[in-house]
Amino acid sequence: MLLNIDPILSPELLYALRAMGHGDEIALVDSNYPAESCGPACIRADGSNVSEILKAVLTLMPLDSFVPDPANSMQVVGDPKAIPDTVKEFQQIINDTAENPTEIKSLERYDFYERAAKCFTVVQTGERRLYGNIILMKGVVTL
Question: Do residues 128 and 30 make contact, with C-beta atoms less than 8 angstroms apart?
Answer without folding.
Answer: yes
